[in-house]
Amino acid sequence: MTHEQASELLAAFALHALDRDEEQAVSAHMQSCAQCQDELASLREVTEQLGSAVGQVSPPPRLREAVLAGIRSRPDVITLRRGWVVGVAAAAAVLLLVLAGLGVSLSRQLTALSARLAAQERVLALLAAPSARSVPLTGTVAAAVRFVYDPDRGLGALVVSDLRDPGRESVYQLWLIAGAQPESAGVFRPLPGQPIVLPVTADFSRYQAVAISVERAPSGALQPTTTPVLLGKL
Amino acid sequence: MRTGASLAVGERPIRPSAVEWQMERGATQADHEATLLARIARRDATAFETLYDRYSRAIYSLALRLLGNPQAAQEVAQEIFLHIWRGAGEFIPARGSARSWVLSLAHHRTVDALRRQRVRAVEPLAEGDLGAGGGADVVDQALRGVEGATVRSALMTLSPEQREAIVLAYYGGYTQQEIANRLRIPLGTVKTRIRDGMQRLRGQLVQGEEER
Q: Distances from the Cα of B28 to the Cαs of A215, B24, B35, B48, in angstroms?
């Protein structure tokens, strides 16, 4: 598309009133045309005002919950087959679980598949590393939860073999703690009788501990709001 | 809000500095909106939450106006925020304000949703009950939903034909071709109306902009 053709279509482009093909052609031209970029920026000030002029209505609070849950949900949680092991104690047993989990996860829907496969690859690489360490998480609830990590390669995984259900209104949230600063590593919910593995990639030299707190479902919190129920020192 | 949930679990505390959670980090600072998008691009969930609180009303209202249905508006608003979460890195401050980028993204996604809806409904575009006016009802209805006085009066400075074309495009979610079909006029005419109408609107609405 020539510059003349593209600039003729910019107003409609800003209004999103082009067919898909035209839109892509204008978009492609725009990449390398500073003049069209400037023109579009000023047309977008017009559409911004058109958009802001509609009657304002507050969305329901559940939209906020849903949106925040959407960005925090972990697509890469590995679910292991029921009944394999309860109370995992050693990395070798974890490896068996992960291998068993591969077959299960492969049959799951395609959308989450690549995230899961990448996660499994990371966990396998972690478990094969001679420098990998494993720490149990202990605290105020009876649980079989460990954190396995390889500080040299920044790979880690939380292995939840046994942890009571947090109740419908709550989820567990995993935190990495650097100094006084907890950083969220995602929320999860244990499955009854079914171990799960949450891969975590991080520079573990920055953190002194991993902790799990109970937070509000479905999205957890930005910072912990309750005392952690489990803690493991790295 | 509690401010000092303790980390001291078990018999061996890690070290004193690790015992206190630091709560509500930076939640009160007034972020410049471009900075907010840059932080979101770095996967900063606090920044995203701030952005949600700042834009959810505008985005939801726009989606609701175009889609006319709260359920569909919520679905598309959720999709829009996920796009912002994933695509914040594509925002380039030199090419316009954060707000115009966010609202443009929101409009684009909403129009896409509207077109998916119409494909499912198999709306007859060029014939049937549309009548000779073709777009008059949609235009009247859309204009009733425009509550901003400045934008309303700016739209009223357009010729009725320009106004119709722009309102059908922006608030109706129709492409130029669909507008031409609806109104039974040549595509070239629609293109001219949209181009001239947008120039005129820009002269009215954008500060420091001379009418061209």
A: 22, 8, 15, 14
